[in-house]
């Protein structure tokens, strides 16, 4: 606990110190506020946004896109990873196609999804799913492939059925990998939603930032980035708590006081 307190205190001190220097630089005309607006100005803009209903609508839309991208991507990636992990022939057949698709920069898929699905929710979720899916797939695939051979041999020696092997051997092995990647997956889901909004949308945090950039409003851009950062940190904290609860059986790492 003492170590966590020291770490948190140090982090807060660094942030406060940087903000004070930033504010002082703007007030002393050392930093051009057109490019780097003062922190106090940014906070005032965020407070102004929070007083409007449109801001909360944008936040809610981005949250919905993130959740849908996360859930759908995890589901498809997990099912695909288990299937290919248990079917070597199918894995050999589809592996080149998966590698090619994974190598495509996702930002290039954004305009295509807009053409296919329009500027609504579907195109944002589609882009987010393509980011989350591969994280879940590769972790699940690796987890299935790295089953303890001794445990697997013992289960087969006891004449366990294929369904029993899947339920009691393969899934527990893959679950650890999947749960450990939840934090990365939720970050990818947010990235997909915001990038898709930035490329083309009528609402969302990405749209808010794009609007500010369109009129060279640096205060709006910085405000949007900070709101987005807080949004991601909040989601990360929620996923961290879920991960700790689901992996409560995992031995905790020892830390120095």
If you had to describe this structure to a student in words, what would you say it looks like?
By secondary structure, the protein is an all-alpha fold. It is globular and about 75 Å long. It has two domains: 1-31; 37-246, MetI-like fold (Orthogonal Bundle). It has helices at residues 2-27, 39-50, 53-86, 88-103, 106-117, 121-145, 149-157, 162-180, 182-199, 205-214, 218-246. The chain is built from eleven helices and no strands.
Strand content: under 5%
- Kindly state the percentage of residues in helix: over 70%
Report the CATH architecture of the largest domain: Orthogonal Bundle
* The CATH C-level class name of the largest domain: Mainly Alpha
From the helix content, strand content and strand pairing, which structural class follows?
A: mainly alpha
List the helices and strands in order: HHHHHHHHHHH
Characterize this entry briefly.
By secondary structure, this protein is an all-alpha fold. Helices cover 82% and strands 0% of the residues.
How is the topology of this model organized?
Blueprint: H1 2-27, H2 39-50, H3 53-86, H4 88-103, H5 106-117, H6 121-145, H7 149-157, H8 162-180, H9 182-199, H10 205-214, H11 218-246
Helix pairs in contact: 2-11, 3-4, 3-6, 3-9, 3-10, 5-6, 5-9, 6-8, 6-9, 9-10, 9-11, 10-11
